[in-house]
Amino acid sequence: MLIKMHSSWHNQLSDEFVKPYFEQLTSFVKKEYATHRCFPIESQIFAAFDYCLFEKVKVVIIGQDPYHGLGQANGLCFSVSDGISFPPSLVNIFKEIQTDLKLPIPISGNLERWADQGVLLLNATLTVRETEAGSHQNQGWEIFTDAVIQKISDTKESVVFLLWGGFAKKKGAKIDRNKHHVLETGHPSPLSANRGLWFGNQHFSKTNAYLKSIGSNEIQW
To answer: I want to staple 188 with a disulfide (CB 3.0 to 4.6 A). Which of 89, 103, 139, 209 is the partner?
Structure first.
């Protein structure tokens, strides 16, 4: 596995790369990519860290694992590349933005435009086998992404963490809530959203209101 990520993150996380769990994880991922079709493509595994530099992080959104359909995952949680149909969770995210901020549904589901503004789109697990959701869980990725969250919590202040669904809320245990602004709601998947646990959360306007209150630029969602 090629550890390709921006130097701003590499400097912060270099201690993780030499730990036994990460060496085992690297071996696992290399074998999986050699023997199965996996997503995202190898060069995009750490894309979330390339589009949102460490010093620019203002908002963190935590996903579970990458989309497992062909051509969907691009290394940013909930995001798909230009020209790819929106998965159901992303449809519901855009519907909530439309209601919350009165913005039109965008043409592209590529969320690089959020990442460029300081939104870290972090999946708990950074790789997956085609058509097998959760297939790369419990191999070490969760330890690594816990370390990412811990590093942000410890070294930065006034970051907005958006925790959507039970899985993300558990990851939120690493966050110092005295220093950071944490918003929690249900997952945007149809299963959760159709039970009334997603729509109306207003996380996008609430995030911007908080950023404005601390003198930071609002996110153009």
So the answer is: 89
